[in-house]
Design a protein that fits this description.
The chain has 6 helices and 15 strands. The protein has helices at about 5-10, 15-25, 115-120, 140-150, 180-190, 220-225; strands at about 25-30, 30-35, 45-50, 50-55, 60-65, 95-100, 105-110, 130-135, 155, 155-160, 165, 170-175, 195-200, 205, 215.
């Protein structure tokens, strides 16, 4: 299989991140630096990243985590801040986050060792919905909510239409894009800066009663539901075939 795909299957990184590792010259095959993500590789190819041998992951693992504020959504942090992967149970193996949440945003984030699944859940073309609850400054009017539903103009372009509704004293917003700080910027664009923000759903998976800082491994049926949660054919082009979920 392609080298980038092999690294993703091995749980090193998502496929896009694996391609960056390869182009940066951090991947070797048989001791030789390889910069072509399309190079063939398998478990017998003596692949290494930063000098560490890569072995294919034996079993797919996906965890739901309730990220607290102050925790960063990366595997490592150069400033020594706590990371979301540190919240996984001891012995969970090498995992990395699926998408990101701002350091001040709380709620549902996924950890996995499956780069292909991460790609399906985070690539914009698959339009996997993500739902947030926000407390904002000021009172949202019906016109504000209408603007969110129709899409608002940001400095990097107009957003796709979102689902928006009031839930008590909070706004619930569901988006299918993944731009940086998108929810915060959308609400600022309609005149209501975010005071508190948490993600309560990722595709069909709900945060539920998972305590802040806690993690749980997803059941097989939950993982399969996640793999079905995006568009099978993206707008503007056909998506690559999805892999059959591992059993």
């Amino acid at each position: 299989m392609r080298l980038a795909k092999f690294l993703a299957h091995a749980g090193i990184a998502s496929r896009r991140a694996a391609e960056e590792l390869i182009r940066d010259g951090r991947v070797t095959i048989g001791g030789e630096v390889v910069t072509d993500p399309a190079r063939d590789a398998d478990e017998h190819s003596d692949v290494a990243v930063d000098g560490e041998p890569v072995r294919a992951a034996r079993e797919r693992a996906v965890y739901a985590v309730n990220k607290p504020a102050g925790v960063v959504s990366t595997a490592k942090d150069t400033h020594g801040r706590p990371t979301v992967v540190e919240l996984a149970p001891r012995g969970a193996g090498r995992l990395y986050p699926v998408g990101r949440l701002d350091v001040d945003t709380t709620g549902l984030i996924l950890l996995t060792n499956d780069g292909e699944l991460a790609n399906l859940l985070t690539h914009p073309r698959y339009e996997v919905p993500k739902t947030y609850r926000a407390k904002v400054g000021g009172r949202l009017s019906s016109e504000d909510i209408k603007r969110l539903r129709e899409g608002v103009e940001l400095d990097d372009g107009r957003t796709a239409p979102a689902r928006a509704r009031r839930v008590g004293d909070e706004l619930e917003l569901t988006i299918t894009e993944g731009r940086k700080r998108q929810v915060r910027r959308m609400l600022e664009a309609v005149g209501h800066p975010v005071l508190e923000l948490r993600r309560v759903a990722f595709g069909p998976l709900r945060l539920g009663g998972l305590a802040p800082g806690a993690a749980r491994r997803l059941r097989r049926e939950e993982v399969e539901a996640l793999t079905r949660s995006g568009r099978s054919e993206p707008r503007g082009g056909r998506a690559p075939a999805r892999r059959r979920p591992r059993r």
